[in-house]
Amino acid sequence: MSFKVVILESAELDLKELKAYLVKNFSVETWQNTYDRIKEAIRSLKTFPHAGSIPEELGKLNLSQYRQLISGMNRIIYEVRQATIYIHIIMDTRRDFKALLTRRLLRVI
């Protein structure tokens, strides 16, 4: 069974921020390599949606419907609902996940 993948606006914004950071601090080539790896990881979810692990930070909150996949130095946080995968967050593994979630919550309020 192949799952449909939906990249949410929040994850699209994450990609734009990641691109700006990588191009500014490294190179366009670094960005392209990173982006290609992220796309490949997301494509793999269509076939293996439960391949990712439950993020420790979310597991502690009993939010086990969220999973993560690591792609290079990036975390892809997603949710599987029926036959659809929703990509919520794409972030550098070195960033503070709790701080990112707090900023997102405050942005919504």
Biggest sheet strand line-up: 1-4-3-2
Radius of gyration from CA coordinates:
14 Å
Main pleated-sheet profile: 4 strands, mixed
Parts with pLDDT < 50 across at least 5 consecutive residues: none
Write down the secondary-structure element order.
EHHHEEEH
Global geometry? globular
Label this structure with key terms.
4 helices; single chain; 49% helix; 4-stranded mixed β-sheet; alpha+beta; 109 residues
Give the gist of this structure.
The chain has helices spanning 9-25, 28-47, 56-59, 97-108, and strands at 4-7, 66-71, 74-81, 84-92. It has 109 residues and is an alpha+beta fold.
Please describe what this structure looks like:
The protein has 109 residues and is α+β, with helices and mostly antiparallel strands. Helices cover 49% and strands 25% of the residues. It has a four-stranded mixed beta sheet with strand order 1-4-3-2. A hairpin with a 2-residue loop joins strand 3 and strand 4. Helix 1 runs antiparallel to helix 2. The longest helix is centred in the middle third of the chain and has 20 residues.
